[in-house]
């Protein structure tokens, strides 16, 4: 049995490409890295990699992580600029005994010494998004903080190995140096080949308050199906944040166990995710919450067409 699940519609091309290789026996780590790189390299996905949305100074700072579910090895980078594929840098760091999580200049120095591709990650389109949002913030009094769609993936290969990876440009117009949950083990991701894995997207500041990816894996270890584990963890954190703080940010999680069973939970409407297994062709689903449970529907062709049109639409800043 092989399988892969990922946050958001933007992952489907990478998932499809990686699953073609999983079918041929590709290692779970190679597959998840391949799939995430596909998202990082596509300029119209404005929350990951090339074309990612910049911070308040119009700089693209990227976060990424990688975890091996067999060895529990972890690598992560945060606040890295001008390198093409942070997920690959994170994976390389996971091979080292120490210094597994590097930030800012340290991460960039490591990437340079290890021959990773330098690239200006700020595109003209991202600059237009920045200019539009800055104008809206000044003219309409809107919050500058919008857009935080991390791509997170869990893979399972034919040998039973599981891996996880994440990549994001983080919160749009964030403070320089701000780090969310995506690069943090237990919050943005966690995977154990003997159990399963989970990965998160949403408001990092709130996702971190629950160490929610680890919590889902813990629930699966107790025998919960991934769907039940996701529903429990998301609903409990959502309720706890509302009780203690009056509100909860966006919380969306995807999970996969070592049997190839998957689950997804969210506290928002319209959360999309991509999944493929040996028995299920690569498919995009859209989720909604009904009576505290997350319900999934296969994305219609109309929905998919509207998505494709939206991400490439001209940006009007007048």
UniProtKB/TrEMBL annotation:
One of its GO terms (molecular function) is hydrolase activity, acting on carbon-nitrogen (but not peptide) bonds, in linear amides. Keywords: Autocatalytic cleavage, Hydrolase, Protease. InterPro entries: Ntn_hydrolases_N (IPR029055), Peptidase_T2 (IPR000246). This is N(4)-(Beta-N-acetylglucosaminyl)-L-asparaginase. CDD domains: Glycosylasparaginase (cd04513). Substrate binds at residues 178-181, 201-204. The keyword Phosphoprotein does not apply. GO terms for biological process: proteolysis. The active site is at residue 150. One of its GO terms (cellular component) is cytoplasm. The record marks 149-150 as: Cleavage. It comes from Romboutsia ilealis. It holds the Pfam family Asparaginase_2.
